[in-house]
Amino acid sequence: MARIVQKFGGTSVADLDCIRNVAKRVKAEVDRGSDVAVIVSAMAGVTNQLVDYVSQASALHDTREYDVVVSSGEQVTAGLLALCLQELGVPARSWMGWQIPIHADDMHGKARITGIEPDRLVKKFGEGQVAVVAGFQGVSPHGRIATLGRGGSDTTAVALAAALGAERCDIFTDVDGVYTTDPRIVPKARKLDKITYEEMLEMASLGAKVLQTRSVELAMNMGVRVQVLSSFEDLPGTLVVDEDEIVEKQVVSGIAYSRDEAKITLVQVEDKPGVAAGIFGPLADANINVDMIVQNISPDGGATDLTFTVTRADLNRAVKLLQDRRDEIRYKDLIHDAGVVKVSVIGVGMRSHAGVALSMFTTLAEKGINIQVISTSEIKISVLIDEEYTELALRALHTAYGLDAD
Ligand code: ASP
Ligand code: MG
């Protein structure tokens, strides 16, 4: 029998009516003759509330107890869904991470799954029972509950799908799939039928928050076919698959943006070995992540400007750190700007097509948008622009790459 893993996020299980609706979707899959494991999140808003309780109880909280508290939301949903399934005449039981077990390391609050023993669960499939699994949690080597980081139920679902050798892992959510870009900004955005793991990874890490980034990495490494679809509509969603499965490769599949960027320029730093290390070393030590970097060559072997980006949350810390080290780093001036946005075009087809970057630059130029920083990877070109032009840039690029819906 085909094994299917279904995962329902917080908005899909927001209240009892929603959970009853989920039970119907599970039953439909059971009626198609599949063995089904369902992974659930906490009801919408519950995890935030629990995190808040923990911070109020103890500012310097013990992360093991944090995990005990915040993992409890999933336990409630799992029990309720099992009950609703039973009410529909579908045999079902709930499983906590430790009962399966799902093994995790002891990095409480952001643990990683180290292994799953699915045998007990599979045995129950033999008895026609649906497994309702609490997402987001595993058991540590010390027998304690360990949570997998916010959004971690996606990772539970993909990991379990891999362990079960499932045919597909369906991630039900409040959007009906992955779009070519943010439909709230570009009304002509289209839902994609398929997207490759690599493209999805770039989209996810750029803030298109449909799937937890780690779950996409895992799906790619384990070859799990993932489908993102709506729990509220009966429509096919977007399949996240291997490149081989996509026959007609688009040169550009999607356009993502991130407002969580801030730019720092060090004016006139010396152009000699060790200078970059002297700047980025202390930033790394302070756990400040640097994303895009540009440095000019100096015409006379003297001084050059160095520009880079950090997240907005890290901007003040980064500026302070660089100011404190001004005497060592030796720069003439420091300029910073949080009013920037990073826009990226993404597509595996870029590997075999020339001129993709040029059309991006031309399109932006035609709209009078100045590019401040550029960075590229094999399947992505990113530019940093003034935040004011976000919408204009996204719409123009969407049209230029032929992505508009007709
Ligand atoms: N409930 C957890 C969270 O809100 C895990 C999840 O929903 O994936 O982060
Ligand atoms: Mg989620």
Write the layout of secondary structure elements.
Blueprint: E1 3-8, H1 16-31, E2 35-40, H2 46-57, H3 63-70, H4 72-87, E3 92-95, E4 102-104, E5 113-116, H5 119-126, E6 130-134, E7 137-139, E8 145-147, H6 153-164, E9 168-173, E10 194-196, H7 197-205, H8 213-222, E11 226-230, E12 238-241, E13 254-258, E14 262-270, H9 275-285, E15 293-295, E16 303-310, H10 315-324, H11 326-329, E17 333-337, E18 340-346, H12 356-366, E19 373-377, E20 380-386, H13 390-400
Parallel strand pairs: 1-2, 1-9, 2-6, 3-6, 9-11, 10-12
Antiparallel strand pairs: 4-5, 7-8, 11-12, 13-18, 14-16, 14-17, 15-16, 18-20, 19-20
Helix pairs in contact: 1-4, 6-8, 7-8, 12-13
Bound molecules: aspartic acid (ASP) and magnesium ion.
Magnesium ion is lined by residues 9, 151, 154.
Please tell me how large the radius of gyration is: 24 Å
Low-confidence segments: none
How big a fraction of the residues is strand?
Answer: 15-25%
CATH C-level category of the domain at 3-174: Alpha Beta
Shape: globular
Question: What are the distinct ligands in this entry?
Answer: aspartic acid, magnesium ion
Task: Name the structural class.
Answer: alpha/beta
State the fourth-level CATH superfamily of the domain at 3-174.
Answer: Acetylglutamate kinase-like
CATH architectural group of the domain at 3-174: 3-Layer(aba) Sandwich
CATH topology of the domain at 3-174: Carbamate kinase
